TrEMBL record:
PROSITE patterns in the record: HTH_ARAC_FAMILY_2 (PS01124)
UniProt-recorded Gene Ontology molecular function terms: DNA-binding transcription factor activity; sequence-specific DNA binding
Residue span(s) of domain HTH araC/xylS-type: 176-273
InterPro entries reported for this sequence: AraC-bd, AraC_XylS_family_regulators, Homeodomain-like_sf, HTH-like, HTH_AraC
Protein name per UniProt: Transcriptional regulator
Domain of life the protein comes from: Bacteria
One protein family per Pfam: AraC_binding
Record's keyword terms, sorted: DNA-binding, Transcription, Transcription regulation
Amino acid sequence: MATLSAEHATFSVHRALPQVELLDAHYVEHAFGRHTHDTYVVAAITAGVEEFHHGGGVERAGVGTVALVNPETVVTGHAGVPEGWGYRVLYPAVESVLDAAADLRPAGAGTPAFSTAVAHDGELARLVHAVHGAVARDDALAASTAFRLLVARLLRAHSAPRAVRCAASAGASAVAEARELLRARLVDPPGLEELAAAVGARPFPLLRAFREAHGLPPHAWLNQQRVAAARSLLRRDVPPAEAAVAVGFVDQAHLARHFRRSVGVPPGAYRRAVQERTRLPVAARGTVGA
């Protein structure tokens, strides 16, 4: 359990929920920079207060509340009080939520989205703790059951139609082409001028439209894609140093800096946790900072 005196982070994945990553952490000085997740984020606050930028505003999540973040949403995260914050987090892949929701919604209902950033919902918090507890006990049936009940609770009490960002200035098609070009060139990305020329746009209008569509400028979005690609490689047991170079980071230290700011644990710890399918303690204070 988190204490108020030190930072710690424990990352885990369980065989019963292979598309759901779990984090049990307490942070004081560590701060998450602007980043996105390709998963949902469901975080039950267990101590202190987390403060995070979300949707153009600042949210505060205290003990008993659950912070909710949709995929591809730009967020930050830092302590809202001097003693920091503790939380238990689930990072379910979109596919895992759609699968769990299949029996609860009509066909073609689309991808679910959260309607609030901070839920004051004791039952939802209880279900987050239930998933974590079942994983800690290595109880596959309880873990998968609690997760499906959690998705049902989210759909019933905290879902809304998924909002779609509209690109401005350079046009949605130019932004989409730029995004795919960057994704295809993680290791050798073009400069802004080359990128704009490739999609038939001017540099500044493309920059403005890209930020409007994705919440991040192209270079920051690219680093998020690199982190996501590195996570995929680490899940396949590729060493962090090799993963770093493969996705376009200069070296392992460069990957670690971005990885910790987005994921909250070092890439080596993430790799071991995924391979061992167990709760892996991450060394305390000093190893989780940006």
